[in-house]
Fold this sequence. Notes:
Shape: globular
Distance between the termini: 61 Å
Structural class: alpha/beta
Helix content: 40-55%
Number of strands: 18
Strand order of the largest sheet: 4-7-10-3-11
Number of helices: 30
Amino acid sequence: xxxxxxxxxxxxxxxxxxxxxxxxxxxxxxxxxxxxxxxxxxxxxxxxxxxxxxxxxxxxxxxxxxxxxxxxxxxxxxxxxxxxxxxxxxxxxxxxxxxxxxxxxxxxxxxxxxxxxxxxxxxxxxxxxxxxxxxxxxxxxxxxxxxxxxxxxxxxxxxxxxxxxxxxxxxxxxxxxxxxxxxxxxxxxxxxxxxxxxxxxxxxxxxxxxxxxxxxxxxxxxxxxxxxxxxxxxxxxxxxxxxxxxxxxxxxxxxxxxxxxxxxxxxxxxxxxxxxxxxxxxxxxxxxxxxxxxxxxxxxxxxxxxxxxxxxxxxxxxxxxxxxxxxxxxxxxxxxxxxxxxxxxxxxxxxxxxxxxxxxxxxxxxxxxxxxxxxxxxxxxxxxxxxxxxxxxxxxxxxxxxxxxxxxxxxxxxxxxxxxxxxxxxxxxxxxxxxxxxxxxxxxxxxxxxxxxxxxxxxxxxxxxxxxxxxxxxxxxxxxxxxxxxxxxxxxxxxxxxxxxxxxxxxxxxxxxxxxxxxxxxxxxxxxxxxxxxxxxxxxxxxxxxxxxxxxxxxxxxxxxxxxxxxxxxxxxxxxxxxxxxxxxxxxxxxxxxxxxxxxxxxxxxxxxxxxxxxxxxxxxxxxxxxxxxxxxxxxxxxxxxxxxxxxxxxxxxxxxxxxxxxxxxxxxxxxxxxxxxxxxxxxxxxxxxxxxxxxxxxxxxxxxxxxxxxxxxxxxxxxxxxxxxxxxxxxxxxxxxxxxxxxxxxxxxxxxxxxxxxxxxxxxxxxxxxxxxx
Length: 775
């Protein structure tokens, strides 16, 4: 018997003593043999340039890899053989111009001049080096790599092993090519880093990515959650994904949460030619098992011949797996869902669980997204990662964020017809203030075991501007806009804070931001809230700053506006409570004081937002469920909650979920799904909630006949919305989108004990996709 293992972590001494051990060192073989065999697969027309490609490998690859290993930090660790293979994949995907069929007697030099061929090979190779060897590090590492690669290409790095200018480790000699220069060097550093440059193959020149697309303002009729602002990141990651995926390579996007990995991949998959490509999408979480992912993929494939399965004839399927590293480790440290995918990557198929025969799967490829290991995310075995081309998606720099949110504020000012004197300069200043709050709170208020939900990402900045854009009537002066913006930042960043110390810190920081960025004094802006007339507004007085959409009308008619008279609002809510009790629903005898009114406004704000979900954290009896019921009643939403009995199992839970999804997606009625942590009989309930928050559906929950039923329910509405009625996949996607639009999850959790912490770690959507309100 021969065992091939990565380490002996789970081998018992008895096993070890009975086997002869051979340690195979990765560096002993190196990547050169792979390069030699890869060179033989290149198209014949590139033959004259092979010596040059060999020289480029010898000159650039070793120093660049040594530099990355010594000086840069990788978001997701890679093995030394991984990076050169990624380089070969990118290079191979970009040389289609050399794969043309020549007619008899036709010379390739007439199609592309020999001088241009040289530029083409050199520049595509440099581009591949940047996005393979330099493509796995984070922002800081990119700056260093940019500086080093420019020096290396210009011949300004000392070639001797005794160099002192860069630390590349001991004994590494740089071997420059016979032609010391590249045919077309990178533009000057002032035009952007090497990551900002794109090689235009038809014009044989380097161009900044942003110059490859037209800059257009956002169309006013777009809804907030459908806005996509073009930044340098959206252009370059989309280009690299398209190039690799259309050439059959497996792609992995790795990066912190909220950087848009999933959005880039989904947009790219949706834009693919439907006649040639299909896609299968799934999201992993801590509880996913191998059988689930196997069934999801098998159900979407057709039988080609005995034992061979694939997408419909003439197409290729791209399987997209989000949160690849979420599955929990089993007893011996493996992750079964990942192992079954690795089985396909290594052997081209997996076993049919019923007939126990091998199923060969053809014409499929994988792409995946994952966050860096840590905090519920596990490291993935290098045997799995070696199959993927890894690209790290870094946090947006402030310039990109500025560009995104300036475009969004511009869209809102046009759409809401904000007066010129308000909308000209102030929104730009508020964008700056929001970014400063976001960067500071990430740095100052770090997660601890008691505050495990203190994790902030780009979605939080979006929630601030989504809240601002909900306002019914445009602010008529600067003070109104500053109050609206302050209210939204309080709702997004302040409501999750757990103690008075943190709240005071945030309040004084917000005060600084208003004073510093807006040209107005905080106490002047909120003068009407200075109830004790001492000239300063404190945090207790600011509690009365509320915005609500139920003051001037119930249901969808209500406009989101500032609450001018808090006492009148409390009277209105009390009247609504009486009405609620008369409507024959569950009777609630409550005394509504200021604290309750605050939380009703907060819950009401969230459930009226598109894709608005709330996580209410507080001990039992703090009014989380009662206040949610009133807020939903005033918004004229239906409230759906489950009844737990002794015999309640996964089957009943799935039936309840189907009912609530049929209501929200099939009938299109706005629904609040109220779920309490005392109702969690099995952790798999949270798995399904995590999926609904993330994608709007639970994969493979509806059987085939039930899927047909929900498609029939939505077809009339889908046709009106312009969906292709002939495509069942498009109709089902419309159903899922309707579920996301109409279904608002309100989750009531208690912070007592370890369970809350554990759950937030295992199911990241509970924090990422919800607005948190701490009672």
